Amino acid sequence: MAKVVALDPDPDDPRLASIGSALEAWTSAGLLTVAVRRDGPAPLLVGTVREQLRPAGQGLWALRLQVPRPERACLELGIYVPGAERPEPRSVWRGPAMRPAPPEPPPIEVAPPQPIATGERAERHAVTC
Q1: What is the value of pTM for the model shown?
Q2: Above 80 in pLDDT, residue 18?
Q3: What is the DSSP string of 38-81?
Q4: How far is CA 42 from CA 59, 81, 86, 102, in A?
Q5: In this structure, which long-range contacts are made by residues 21-28, counting pairs with CB atoms below 8 Å and at least 24 apart in sequence?
Q6: Is 120 helix (H, G, I), strand (E, B) or coil?
Q7: Is residue 75 within 8 Å of 81, Cβ to Cβ?
Q8: Is the confidence at residue 108, as pLDDT, over 80?
């Protein structure tokens, strides 16, 4: 099983300056960087990797991940802010050499249950399909 190693963020990475409140991820020099801008305590990265984000500037949190073959990696990423009721929705990050995600299947319409028999006994012991 491949091991992912968490490293401190690179404070000289120019992309950190444009990070907003949505979790962002990118690769550079064989490392995957994840970053988010939030006030308050350090958010927790959740999903494939569970690790506390580290300070990368005023209200900026980031983490570099040493991922084997990052160009072919596929990771589920999300954040949990301490004190929140639940983690924020997760997304899937795919390395540049990964094929795209499959399309969402169409919704399935389910018909209401139908009784398979009638009569007094069927009413007392309803069986539907």
Answers
A1: 0.74
A2: yes
A3: -SSSPPEEEES--EE-EEEETTEEEEEEE-SSGGG-EEEEEEE-
A4: 9, 7, 15, 33
A5: 23/77, 23/78, 23/79, 23/88, 23/91, 25/75, 25/77, 25/93, 27/70, 27/71, 27/95, 27/96
A6: helix
A7: no
A8: yes
